[in-house]
Amino acid sequence: MNILKFESQQKLNEAGAGILAGLVQTNPRVVLGLATGGTPVGIYEELVDTHRKGMVSFKSITTFNLDEYVGISTDHPESYHAYMNHHLFSHIDANPARIHIPDGNAADLKQECERYNALLDDAKQIDLQLLGLGHNGHIGFNEPDHALMSGTHVVKLKEETRSANARFFNHIDEVPTHALTMGVGTILKAKMILLVVRGADKAEIVHQALTGPITTECPASLLQTHPHVVVLLDSESGRLV
Length: 241
Ligand code: PGA
Fold this sequence. Notes:
By secondary structure, this protein is α/β, with parallel strands linked by helices.
């Protein structure tokens, strides 16, 4: 694992956006796995800025998002569809036909997982998967458990995850109870993984995930088995590693 620590959020954002933009510049048809949440916002901002300066075009990329809530409409401001449009897609020239986000409103969620897995199979391999880290070690919405699923599946969100995400909603009761998420098999199949973590409240889980035992009770610890992981940490989240 290549662990990089940054003194400022700006430097971290520039490094993250630089890795993504560099990949797109060298391979315009790159397949990117994308993440949502508070963590990647600054990286997407930098990426949009790089695009505005004419330094990178996204018109031939393919993207797959990690996850989506079940049961809120795609135009709900906290849906991950809305998040991606707001922070990235409405500002760049990516082709909507090659942007993929699971549909948390599908009538048949199991069938939707199968559809998403088939699209991922067609794409063969994600070149770079961007990941944030949950306080409980989740990646995507793969929550700690005695066993994990390989492919896309429906997940019941842990109460700690709902509480962490309640900051984006008016009230915790509005936070969905379920989500669709890419599985850890798909995540680990990516050629490269870019894990980004910020904040003192994640120092302990960063330490556990990167240096502790490999266990499904800390899904991010499985990243230790991957041959090409780059970890971007701010100084607070990286305090113990
Ligand atoms: P956050 O979420 O970026 O909003 O902290 C990370 C995650 O839950 O994966």
